[in-house]
Amino acid sequence: MSQTPPPPPAPGPNSYTTLAAGADFRHELTIKRSRFITVLRRVADEEEARALVAGLRREFYDARHHCSAFVLGADRRVQRSNDDGEPSGTAGLPMLDALLKRETRRSPAATAADLSDACAVVVRYFGGVLLGAGGLGRAYSESVSAAVDLAPLVRRDRMQLFTIAAPHAAAGRLENELRSAGYVMTGNGYDAVNTQVGLAMPDDADVIAAAQERLASLTAGQGTLAPAGLDWVDTPLPRC
């Protein structure tokens, strides 16, 4: 007897916040003579996160602790933390909590806690003053929160990619019109007859339908969105 196939899995989030790609971001706090050096890096997987920890162990070889936390994936499903010798629950978990609770303004009226693909390592040089469990937790949390607040962040959107074939003479005007309307332009290709104008937009059926309507009005019904794949696109976030 045939069985009804299971429904396809629900798509994950289409957008989240992450660190800007490139160099690590570093920030230092001194709390009761202990130095807390936070290093943030954008990471794609657990291997990259663990490589950051290993590298900092070599760089700061004389530090007492190299505590870490990271969160991965648009759905933030992968979450890990490590106290690295601090009393259990006083370092890694507060650091992870600081990453998970960091809110990004998505609109003038709404914020979202959606930071991901981020690894934080806090290198601690003990200053001789015991902080106690509560003090340690606050110190590690504050160290990460302060670093993230100052770090360059981007919004990462899952975007549908398209091309539009336009006569060479009309392509520049069409590209300017689309850019002025807020579309993300991804570069052009060329053949003997047409310019292939590239653009990206959110992976949302309503947005794509509205874009096709706008394109029709700009090209007297001649322009067509040709699908060119799906990719994640970074957009810098303004500093609050």
Structural class: alpha+beta
CATH architecture of the largest domain: 2-Layer Sandwich
Q: What is the CATH C-level name of the largest domain?
A: Alpha Beta
CATH topology group of the largest domain: Ribosomal Protein S5, domain 2
Count of alpha/pi helices: 5
Number of strands: 12
Q: What's the N-to-C terminus distance?
A: 60 Å
Overall mean confidence score, pLDDT: 90
- Count of structural domains: 2
Folded structure, characterized:
The termini are far apart. The protein has two domains: 15-151, Ribosomal Protein S5, domain 2, CATH 3.30.230; 156-236, 2-Layer Sandwich (Alpha-Beta Plaits), CATH 3.30.70. The protein has helices at 46-59, 92-101, 132-150, 168-180, 205-218; strands at residues 15-19, 25-31, 34-42, 65-72, 78-82, 103-107, 110-113, 118-125, 153-167, 184-190, 194-202, 226-236. The longest helix has 19 residues, at 132-150. Strand 10 (184-190) and strand 11 form a beta hairpin. The protein is built from five helices and twelve strands. Residues 1-11 have low confidence and may be disordered. The strands form three sheets. Strands 1, 9, 10, 11 and 12 form a five-stranded antiparallel sheet that branches. The protein has a five-stranded antiparallel sheet with strand order 2-3-8-4-5, with helices on both faces. A two-stranded antiparallel ribbon has the order 6-7. The chain is an alpha+beta fold and 240 residues long.
Can I get a quick summary?
It contains five helices and twelve strands.
